[in-house]
Every structure is written in structure tokens, then in C-alpha cells.
Design goal:
With about 140 residues, the chain is mostly helical. Helices cover about 45% and strands about 5% of the residues. α3 links the parallel β1 and β2.
Length: about 140
């Protein structure tokens, strides 16, 4: 039994050495890739970047921050899901509803909304199924 233990121990040592070599090779590859990415101006996520563990709030903040910081967008808070000044809508059913006056050319030129050239937000909305507007408010 002692001989078997010695054989097992040798196998584990060999495996550990092989694993160590592979880790060093991978570290060299990572270093090389990081250098190439830096040369090309490609951002690499920081260590610990684990979006699958993010809360919904973190996802929304990261999305808006990307457009605000990288592409000069204005951060616009989500409007109410019950539109105040739009009798054509029962509720916000799409993220673009709050921009409707801009698209229709009816935005007040003196309003803050008229100054927006690029906007980013995560609009709350109610989706009721189907392709578009399923609900009729008669």
C-alpha cells in the first residue's frame, strides 16, 4: 500500500508541474493579448468583471454610463409609465415614447428636451404581449 501511495504522490507532483507550466503559458498569452489590445486601443474588462452577477440596476447604470462617457450622450431619467401629456397613450409601451415630441417636431424650442442631440436612458415601459399595441382603451 505504501508503494501505491508513493506512485500516486509522484503522479500528483507531475500533474502539478504540468498545471504550473500551463498557467505560466496562459499568463504569457494574457500579457501578450493585453499589450496588443492596448496598442489597438481596445478596452479589456478589469479583473473581476462578472456581468452575470450584476443587478438590474448595475446593468442599467453601466449601459447609460457607456453612452454618456464614451459617446457624449445626455443621461435622461426614465419618464413615468403613465404619460402625463399624451392622450394617445394609456401607458408607456416603448422606450421612445418620451421622445415623441422631438420626432413629431412639436417639442417646445425653449425646453431642455429641445437641446438634446444624443440621449441615453433605460425607460421603464409596460409590454402587454403581441406585436405592438394589443390593448384598446375604449
Amino acid at each position: 500500500m505504501e508503494e501505491q501511495l508513493k506512485k500516486d504522490l509522484e503522479q500528483y507532483k507531475d500533474r502539478a508541474e504540468t498545471a504550473e507550466k500551463k498557467i505560466k503559458e496562459l499568463a504569457k498569452r494574457v500579457e501578450l493579448l493585453e499589450g496588443l489590445a492596448k496598442e489597438k486601443g481596445i478596452a479589456i474588462p478589469a479583473q473581476g468583471f462578472e456581468p452575470w452577477f450584476w443587478s438590474a440596476k448595475k446593468v442599467r447604470e453601466t449601459y447609460v454610463d457607456f453612452y454618456v462617457k464614451k459617446h457624449n450622450h445626455t443621461s435622461v431619467p426614465s419618464s413615468s409609465v403613465i404619460p402625463y401629456n399624451d392622450p394617445t397613450l394609456l401607458f408607456a409601451n416603448a422606450g421612445m415614447n418620451q421622445y415623441k415630441p422631438i420626432f413629431l417636431g412639436t417639442v417646445d424650442p425653449k425646453s431642455e428636451q429641445a437641446t438634446w442631440k444624443r440621449a441615453a436612458n433605460t425607460q421603464k415601459c409596460i409590454r402587454a404581449g403581441g406585436k405592438h399595441n394589443d390593448l384598446e382603451a375604449d
